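Recall the central idea of this unit: under ordinary conditions, the amino acid sequence of a chain determines the structure it adopts. In this exercise we apply that idea directly, starting from the sequence alone.
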Amino acid sequence: MPPLDTSLMPWNKAGAREGQPVIFQLVTRCNETKDLAEIIVCNSFLEAEASAFKLCPNILPIGPLTGLAVVPGVNGVVTKEEVSGKVIRVVGDNGIESCVARGGSSYENFKRFVDLLKQ
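Accordingly, the structure predicted from this sequence is:
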């Protein structure tokens, strides 16, 4: 099989060819690190990816997220309190409230996310 030029793959729009080794290392390390996580939070679009998330039970789909920026603490880590404050702001948004109406999977996922923050 001839060598593949990753910069020519249609799904990969990561910049110049010279940067491809760095992107490869980033993806590889992220894949290794994910195995250490108890749960992975993923922005989702309503029910669009429901079947995909069923294949990966340790991924918690939440969303759609509104894009509120979080501010890291002194040591560069975003605190639980910072995230909780953003969740409180989002819950008051009418659009989000309707998306996470009681009974749907979006509601259950959002509730699970909030419960994890309380731990």
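The chain is about 45% helix and 5% strand.
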